[in-house]
Write a sequence for this structure.
């Protein structure tokens, strides 16, 4: 029997000043804020999974712009070892609405996000996104910083 990491996606949905955060409706981290994302379904590409998760959790239609990086630290999700491809996407400034396993969704100015309070490793991801905005680099969770 193979024990492999589970593929996931997370998406930084950006409108030029704000990012979309969802409030988790279930454990782990119920009630905490996070980026939209989730598990990749069998037979689904990571790109399709990213767009599906954004639509399911926020109601927004997004366009993928870039891959921020791959995050695979063994403790990033308390349920299992996951390996997340993290995308940067843009969406029109319509109001997001929580759906699927997201209790709520909202735009938050990037400079107002308290990254240490986010679920999973999403604070690290947003800190890397801020660095990406300055130098368009690729990041991963287990690289020495």
């Amino acid at each position: 029997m193979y024990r492999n990491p589970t593929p996931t996606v997370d998406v930084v949905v950006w409108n030029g000043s704000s990012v979309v955060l969802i409030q988790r409706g279930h454990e782990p981290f119920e009630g905490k804020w996070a980026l939209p994302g989730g598990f990749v379904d069998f037979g689904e590409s990571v790109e399709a999974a990213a767009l599906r998760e954004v639509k399911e959790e926020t109601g927004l239609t997004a366009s993928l712009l870039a891959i921020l990086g791959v995050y695979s630290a063994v403790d990033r999700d308390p349920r299992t070892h996951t390996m997340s491809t993290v995308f940067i996407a843009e969406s029109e400034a319509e109001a997001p609405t929580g759906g699927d396993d997201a209790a709520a969704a909202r735009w938050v100015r990037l400079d107002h996000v308290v990254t240490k309070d986010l679920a999973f490793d999403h604070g690290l991801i947003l800190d890397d996104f801020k660095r990406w905005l300055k130098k368009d680099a690729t990041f991963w969770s287990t690289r020495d910083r």
Helices lie at 46-58, 122-135. The chain is about 20% helix and 35% strand. The beta strands are 6-14, 18-24, 33-34, 37-39, 63-71, 82-90, 102-109, 139-140. The radius of gyration is 14 Å.
